[in-house]
Amino acid sequence: MDELQESALGTQEYWDNRYKEEIANFEDHGDPGEIWFGEDTVERTIEWIKKQESISKNSKILDIGCGNGMFLVELFTQGYVNSFGMDYSEDAIELAKSIAQKRNFKIEYSVCNILEGLEGQFDVIHDKGTYDAISLNANIKEHRVTYLKNIFKGLTDTGLFIITSCNWTKNELVEQFTDYFELVNEIPSPQFKFGGQVGNTVTSVIYRKR
């Protein structure tokens, strides 16, 4: 399996600078900033969550690499009120808190790096783009193991891990995660055809502990 090329997107400096700009835009215009992978990706994930009997409105849900927190904002509007967001960028957390406060939503956010561990256990852990960013870091092989171990520890025994990636296919994620997780389901996403091959714009898959 080929690794991805190292990129500035895999550095904290890039994201700190990005969210400084988004804080300024939010303060000036009320714009919460970009929703990575698009609003339709968020909608598909939330619709899947709503259909799961094992996920209640009080289930403890964690969004890692939450950025501006809009995934949790949308989740909160659907009645999922036991939600938490974490990001290693202080600027991202500042923005997420400001957006939630403006809407009077009680969502708990904290500055935390998934590679440094998680506190507590969660019924659902959601990742939209964080694993992708880690995969663009020079230390991907080392960081991948740390990432998976910490996700594993942070899930309850019956918990679900939802990950959306634009860099990895379902088969590649299954291969990379096989020591810790088994595939439960896949959330369908739009397909494209190029050079006779059919692919997905993003991959959204659900895992549980082995």
From TrEMBL:
Q: Which residues form a coiled coil?
A: none
Q: Where is the Methyltransferase domain?
A: 56-190
This protein's GO cellular component annotations are:
cytoplasm
> EC number(s) for this protein?
2.1.1.-
Q: Which GO terms describe its biological process?
A: methylation
InterPro entries attached here?
Answer: Efm4/METTL10 (IPR026635), Methyltranfer_dom (IPR025714), SAM-dependent_MTases_sf (IPR029063)
Checking HAMAP family in the record gives: Methyltr_EFM4
Protein name per UniProt: Protein-lysine N-methyltransferase Zmor_007277
Organism equals Zophobas morio
